[in-house]
Amino acid sequence: MRTQVCIIGGGPSGLLLGQLLHTVGVDTIVLERQSKDHVLSRIRAGVLERGFQNLMIQAGVGDRMIAEGIIHDGTLLSNGDEKLRIDFKALTGSHVMVYGQTEVTHDLYAARDNIGAPTLHQVEHVEIDNLDQPQATVRFQQNGEQHEITCDYVAGCDGFHGVSRTTIPVEKRREFEKVYPFGWLGILSETPPVDHELIYANSERGFALASMRNPNLSRYYIQCPLSDDVKDWSDDAFWSEFKSRIPSDAAERLVTGPSIEKSIAPLRSFVCEPMSWGRLFLCGDAAHIVPPTGAKGLNTAASDIHYLFEALAEKYSERSDAGLNAYCEKALARVWKTQRFSWWMTNLLHHFPDQTSFDRRVQSAEFAFLQSNEDAQRALATNYVGLPY
Ligand code: FAS
Ligand code: PHB
Question: pTM for this structure?
Answer without folding.
Answer: 0.96
